Amino acid sequence: MTENQTRPNKFHWLTSFRHGPTLALLAIIALFALLDWQFGSGRFFSPRNARVIVNSAALIAVPALGMTMIIIAGGIDLSAGTALTLSGTALAIAFRDYTIPVDQAGAATWIAAALALGLGVGILCGLINGLIISLTEMVPFIVTLGTMTIFLGLGQVIADESTVYPESGHLPDWLRYLCYTGSNSDHYWLGFLHIPSSALIAIVLGLLVAAVMHFTVFGRNVVAIGSNASTARLCGIRVGWTTALVYALAGIFVAVGALLYFANVKNGNPSDGTGKELEIIAAVVLGGGSLSGGRGSVLGTIIGALIIKTISSGCTMLSIPNTYTHIIIGVIIIIAVLIDGLRNGAPKWLFDRLR
Amino acid sequence: MNPLLEVTGISKRFGPTIALENVSLSAHAGRVLALIGENGAGKSTLLKTLSGAHRADAGTMSLEGRPYRPTSPIDARDSGVAIVYQELTLAPDLSIEDNVMLGRTGTGVGTLFRSNQRASVTEALHRVGLHHVSPKARTGDQSVATQQLIEVARALISDAKIILFDEPTSSLPAADVDRLFQIIDNLRSRGLAVIYISHFLEEVRRVADDYAVLRDGNSVGSGELASISDDQIISLMVGRDVDDLFPSVPHEIGEVRLEVEDLGAAPMPKDVSLALRRGEIFGVAGLVGAGRTELLRCLFALEPTYAGHVRLDGRRLPHNVRGRRKAGFGLLSEDRKNEGLAQNLSIVENLAMGNHDRYTTAGWINLNARLRDARAWIKKVEIKAQDPGQAVSELSGGNQQKVAIARLLAQDAEIYLLDEPTKGIDVGTKAEIYRMMGELAADGKTVIFVSSYLPELLAVCDRVGVMTRGRLAETRDADQWDEEELMVAALAAVEER
Prior knowledge:
The structure holds two protein chains of two kinds. By secondary structure, chain A is mostly helical. Chain A has 15 helices and no strands. Chain A has helices at 12-15, 20-39, 47-72, 80-97, 107-136, 140-158, 173-176, 197-215, 217-227, 229-234, 239-265, 276-286, 298-317, 322-343, 348-354. The longest helix of chain B is centred in the middle third of the chain and has 16 residues, at 174-189. Chain B has a six-stranded mixed sheet with strand order 6-7-8-3-9-10, sandwiched between helices. In chain B, strands 16-19-20-13-21-22 form a six-stranded mixed sheet, with helices on both faces. A four-stranded antiparallel sheet of chain B has the order 2-1-4-5, with helices on one face. Chain B has helices at residues 43-50, 73-79, 96-101, 114-127, 144-157, 174-189, 201-207, 230-238, 292-299, 321-327, 336-340, 347-352, 367-380, 397-411, 427-442, 454-460, 483-496; strands spanning 5-14, 17-27, 32-37, 58-63, 66-67, 81-84, 162-166, 193-197, 210-215, 218-224, 256-264, 272-277, 281-286, 307-312, 315-316, 329-332, 360-361, 364-365, 415-419, 446-450, 463-468, 471-477. In chain B, 35% of the residues lie in helices and 25% in strands. Chain A binds chain B through residues 1-9, 12, 214-218, 220-221, 223-224, 227-228, 230-238, 294-295, 352, 355, and chain B through 14-17, 19, 39-40, 42-45, 53-55, 86-87, 167, 302, 321-322, 325-326, 331, 333, 338-345, 349-350, 352-357, 360, 363-365, 367, 386, 393-397, 407, 424.
C-alpha cells in the first residue's frame, strides 16, 4: 500500500470511547438489576451478591492477568485451566498430608512450604510451556494443547484420580477466609470495606501487571513481540527469552489463582480445570485482547472477568438454567468482540457501504 | 478518437482527509497512460475508485461512452476493468490454474469442467509468455516475476478492455521488467488501454505514451510524454523544482573499520570478503536472489553463518543480533511491511523499539522523555504524521521508511546496512534519503547500500560491488562503472555456470 490509509469511520464518536468493556459491564448490571427486580428474587442488586460476584471474578481475573500478557505477546495458553488445578491439587495434598495443628510450633514452616510447592508447580507449568514454545518454535496453541492434557493427567496421578480433601483444621485462618463473602467484618483484610480478600489480591496484581506492561522495557518488548516478532528480533529484542519469561510469569498468576481457588472450594479436584482456560481467555478477549497479538488491556481483562461472572450470577438469580447461561455468555462474547471490531473499521463490507 | 475510459471531476474524502479532489483523466484504447505522483498523491485511491473498491463522492466516469459506476471489484472486472496490484494477491497454495480462475463467475462446479477451463487458462498463460509452466503447478513455488505474470493472465482471462498496473516493477528483477514491458506492448497493440502507475520515470518513458500527474489529490498535468522532460514531470510531482535528484554531500574516507573475511552461509553468501572504511558508502548491485539481502542479514547476525568472521575496528564480533547492535550495526530491512516496522504500533513505539534503554532508569521507562524524543525525530527527518501516537500503518510508504531510518539514527549506529532503502517511495523522499546517507558518511559512519536501481548506486556510492550467486564478484570505484557494465557483471557469472 502506498497511499495514506487513514480510515476514520462514522462510528468514531461511539467506538473511540476506550471504556467499551466498562460500559458493557454497567449495562449488564443495570439489565440484570432491572430483570431481577421485576421477575426475580430481588437479591441480585445486593452487597452480599456483589461480594460473591467480585470474589468469583477474582478467581478468573488472577490467572487471566497472566493470560493477558501471553495474548499481548501473540501467544495463547490452553493449559492454564489444568495447570491451575494441578497446582491447586498439589496444594491440597500438602495441606492434607501435614499433621501439625495450625497453632503449634513448626506450622508456619509447613504452611510456607505448602504455599511454595503450589506456587512452584504453577511457575514450573508456565516455564515448561515457555521453554517448549521458544526452543522448538512450535505454535503455542499446539504446545499448550499438549501440556493441557499432560497437566490434567499429572494432577490425576498425584491425586490418585480422586478429589483431595484436607482437614479444615489444617488450614490457617487467613487462607480459609481468603474468599470469604459473608457479613463478619473480622474475616476481611479491610474490615471496614467488606471487599473479599481475593478481589484485593486481584486488584493489586492487576495494577502491578498494568504498570509492568506500560512502563517497563520488558512490557514494551512483549507488546513489540506480539505486534511483529520479526521487527522485534531486528531491534535486538531477545524474542525467545522474553516469550519464555512471559509464560513463566503467567505461571505465577496461575499459581496464585490456584491458591484462591483452593481457598474457595477447600479441596483439590484435578479434573476441575478442564474448560476453565476458555473462561480465562474469554475474560481477556472481552477486555479487548486481540488473539493476533499486540493488543490487550489489564483493566479490560478484570472487567471481562466481572462481565462473565455478573452474567452467570444474574442468570442464577433469575433461575435461568445453567445451560442457557452458557449460551448467553457465548453470545455476549461474540457481540463484544464485534463491537470492538467496529472501532477498527471491521467488518470491512459494512464500512465500505456506509462510507 | 473518444477515450475508452473517461474520468471527470472525481472527488473522494475519508473523513477530514481529502484523498482526491476534482481529478480528471482519460485513457485511450491502444495507448498506455502513465499515472505519476508521489506517495500520498492519491494514485492508489484513484485506482481503487476505478476498480470499484471505493466509491467516489463526486464526479463521473464513463467506459466506452457509457456511464461507469462499479459497485465492487468483481463488478468492475465484469465491465472490463482489471487491476494488477503492486503486492501479489495470489493464493500461494492453489494451482496456477485455480488462481487464474479465482473469483470468476460460472466456476461453481469447477472440477467437472476443468478441461474447458484449462484451454482458456493455457491460452492466457501463453499470452503473457508463460509457455513453460504447468497450470497445475503450485503458485507459491513460482518466482515473483512469474507470479506477477500470472496476475496479468488473470486480468486477461476476464476479457479486460482496460488493465491497471499498480507499480508492477517494484518487486521485479531487471530482466523480468523487460518481459513485462513486452507484454504491455502486446496488450497495447491488441487495442487494450493500459494505465500504468510507477515512480520510475525511465520506466514510464519506456512503456507509456501519455502521462497524468497527481499531486495532493489533484490532477496537475497530463499530455503526451514526448512533449515533456523528466525535470518538468518531477517539478509537477513535487510542486517545486528538483535541481538535484541525487544530492551529494562531500565526505572524507578514513581508515578501515569493518572487515569481513570469507563469510559463508547456507545457501548464501559464499566467501565474501570486504574491507570498508570510515565515511564510505559501499554499494551492492546484483540480481534479485544474488545473495545481497542474505549478506546484510549475515553481517547483522540474523542468519547463521558457517564460515568466516566479521571485525569492527580490529575486534572480532560475536555472532548474535544484540552483540552486533551493541557494536554499532544497524539494519534497515528490505521488507518494511512484515519485518522493518510493527505496522499496528505507533510511531513512538516503533522508534523506541530496541532503543528503550535511552529513557529508562532501573527498568522503568520515562514516557515523557520517549515522546519528546519521538517528536524530535519526526521533526528532524520530516515525517508527515498527525500525531506521534499514530499507527505506522496509516503513514505513506515514504514516511514509513523515514520512521525505520529514524530508528537506526536513534540507535546511533556506526555501520548502516541499508537493504533497498528507496524501494517503493517517492522521488522527493528518495532525494532526502540520499542526502541522509551522505551526511552519515560525512559524519564518519560507514554505509552499505543494497539497491536494484543502478542510477542511484552509481550516483550515491563511493565504491560499488556486484554480487552474483552469493559471491561478491567484482568491486570498483563508482566512477569506474557504468550501468551497462554493472548489468553485464551481474549476469556474467550466471552464464558461466
